[in-house]
Design a protein that fits this description.
single chain; 369 residues; alpha/beta; TIM Barrel; 8-stranded parallel β-sheet; 3-stranded antiparallel β-sheet; globular; binds guanosine-5'-monophosphate
Length: 369
């Protein structure tokens, strides 16, 4: 019989972090943002656990370089060639930007050529230990995904491997036999249509709690992927015990994201000489990796057996990514001072989470400039 679970599953917008006294922190500058990650399969990395999504628009060289330079983690999308990635690595090294936290993404399709790509990167370019691999599948609940993961671990025993996506705790143990980080989140992404098209998905807060609990019990780590609307959501994910957070949409309107600026002209309510005044607004295109656009661009069309589970969006242009990155580090540091956490690692220990009906005051939202 079909079962209905009556427990309410919560999302970021359903909760807040309750401020409280903790250790005395006089300034946000006193907060330690870097964390040492000791991974299940033996490797260690250090950084602020924020990733850009491995999508064509934001998993690009421009965004990745900025995150790495800021001491965060970064992914590159799977459509770059070996030589393009090799050149990127050389450029980073020339600029003294560490690539220790750079993850190279591979997909499930045609795994032989994906492995060959990684081996070529190793032999022809400067991709030596430490190495990190992201195995990307919108749905890891298939045997092929598990087989690919086992094979990649066998080929690259000393790499940090991040695998996903999943949306339940039960599968974490299986994946952690080979992976170090489990990417959690199905249907939460801003460019995602999975919940509309398939009815499947799990709200992020409950998913993080469940997955972190199981993964941590065996020395694994998790990455909360998708659904970051505000910087506060990153803070919430850390407070809920997520080790990493991955975001796409918040980087999509920046100069560093892939694609040109698109300008659109709108009629305003202001009347000048009897006519509505016009204004120009700037955007950048952000598309889901399962969208029709992405399928046409990278997979030669949609294929007559599937539906598009992603969409194309025009995201308001926001300028240089530095402002977003400073908001991230500033927001996390400030959150730590509200809860008395000396470091990002301590956020989950210090946080009390409350369930709320009204998270934000939006009364003047439409007047924001
Ligand atoms: P965002 O930060 O924009 O809310 O979410 C980014 C995440 O959305 C990605 O890391 C990825 O997990 C997910 N995503 C990207 N493209 C698609 C898509 O086309 N369909 C679905 N279902 N998820 C997507």
């Amino acid at each position: 019989m079909t079962q209905i679970l009556h427990e309410t599953y919560l999302d970021y917008s359903d909760i807040l972090i309750k401020p409280k006294m903790g250790i005395n922190l006089n300034s946000r500058k006193d907060v330690t943002l870097q964390r040492v990650f000791k991974f299940k399969h033996g490797q260690t990395r250090t950084g602020l656990g924020v990733f850009n999504a491995n999508m064509a628009t934001v998993g690009n060289f421009g965004v990745a370089k900025k995150l790495l330079a800021k001491g965060m983690f970064a992914t590159l999308h799977k459509h770059y060639s070996v030589d393009e990635i090799g050149q990127f690595i050389a450029d980073c090294k020339k600029e003294n930007i560490s690539i220790d936290n750079l993850f190279i993404t591979i997909g499930l399709r045609n795994i032989d050529s994906e492995i060959e790509k990684l081996k070529n990167l190793e032999s022809k370019h400067d991709w030596k230990s430490p190495r990190n691999i992201c195995i990307d599948a919108p749905n890891f609940y298939i045997q092929k995904a598990l087989d690919v993961l086992a094979r990649v671990r066998c080929e690259f025993p000393d790499a940090v491997i991040m695998a996903g996506n999943i949306a339940s705790g039960d599968i974490c143990l299986k994946l952690l036999d080979y992976a170090d980080i489990i990417k959690c989140g199905i249907g939460s992404g801003s460019a995602c249509l999975t919940r509309k098209q398939t009815g499947c998905g799990v709200p992020m807060v409950s998913l993080i709690l469940e997955s972190a609990d199981i993964a941590h019990s065996v020395g694994g780590h998790i990455c909360a992927d998708g659904g970051i609307v505000d910087i506060g959501d990153i803070c919430k994910a850390f407070c809920l015990n997520s080790d990493f957070v991955m975001a796409g949409g918040i980087f999509a309107g920046t100069d560093e994201a892939e694609g040109e600026i698109v300008e659109k002209t709108y009629e305003t309510s202001e009347i000048i000489d009897g006519k509505h005044a016009m204004e120009i607004k700037s955007f950048k295109v952000y598309y889901g990796m399962s969208s029709e656009y992405a399928n046409n661009k990278f997979a030669g069309g949609m294929g007559n057996y599937k539906t598009s589970e992603g969409r194309e969006l025009l995201i308001p242009y926001t300028g240089a990514i530095d402002k977003v990155l400073q908001d991230i580090t500033g927001g996390i540091a400030s959150c730590c001072t509200y809860i008395g956490a000396a470091s990002v690692k301590h956020m989950a220990k210090c946080a009390t989470i409350i369930q709320v009906h009204n998270q934000l005051n939006k009364v003047f939202e439409k007047y924001s400039v």
